[in-house]
Amino acid sequence: MIWYAGTMLTALAMLAASATAAAQRQGRTRHARTDASAADTSRAERADSDNVRRFRGIAAKLNTTPEALESAFARARQANPELSRGNFIAANVLAANLGVQHPNITTAAILSGLQSGKSVGQTLQSLGLSASEAKQARRVADRQMKDAEKEGRADKEGKQKSRHDANERNRDNR
Which of 9, 16, 89, 119 is a good FRET partner for 151, with 20 to 30 A between their CA atoms? Predict the structure, then answer.
């Protein structure tokens, strides 16, 4: 009887160990799939974040949000797939700079001119500026865009440095 009970207990223990091992393997597989899908989602979120981050510096100068600019750029690209990010930003900056003195110079009007195949300068001239005024306006806009990009980069580097410093402090505290 003792021999029989011992054999049964051993068999039950082996069966339980086998079931536990199978469950652990299945859990690891499910966990690995979750990690992979999380990594894909994470990559997509980082790409979206990078796109928005690219508009951060200029958005502050235009008194809007990077998300709003990114969304407007996506809509403008649907209307004109050949529209570059630089021309889109230039249209916004030029409209902000010139719109007060020239109410017909709007972002939509500039984007429409670009969509019809004109350059930014040609579009500005068709909206009432002289060639020299258009050239000067474009130079000013280009300078503002470069300054905003530098500020955005400096902001990003500052955040990276602060993250790096925080990581160093965490390592020191361990």
Answer: 119
Please, which pLDDT band fits residue 111 given cuts at 50, 70 and 90?
very high
- Is the separation of the CB atoms in 93 and 145 below 8 Å? yes
Of residues 160 and 81, the one with the higher pLDDT is: 81
The interaxial angle of helices 85-98 and 107-115, nearest 10 deg, is 140
pLDDT per position as a tens digit, 54-103: 788 888 888 888 899 899 999 999 999 999 999 999 999 999 999 889 99
Rounded distance, CA 148 to CA 57, Å?
5
Instruction: Name 109's Cβ contacts closer than 8 Å, sequence gap at least 6.
Output: 95, 123, 127
The answer to whether 90 and 120 are in contact (CB under 8 A) is yes
Environment class of 155 (CB within 10 Å of its CB; exposed 0-12, middle 13-18, buried 19+): middle
Q: In the structure encoding, which two tokens stand for residue 34, read together?
A: 């979750």
HSE of 99, CA atoms in CB hemisphere, 13 A: 13
